Amino acid sequence: xxxxxxxxxxxxxxxxxxxxxxxxxxxxxxxxxxxxx
Length: 37
Fold this sequence. Notes:
Blueprint: H1 3-14, H2 18-35
Helix pairs in contact: 1-2
Protein name: Cortex morphogenetic protein CmpA
Organism: Rossellomorea pakistanensis
Pfam families: spore_CmpA
């Protein structure tokens, strides 16, 4: 997982920002699919 994404995730979890967490999870999912296919 890229560093910037880890930072965003940590921040979202600390703030318990469900919307942000969902968004980042989707980001990561698409990112992984594109780079690891």
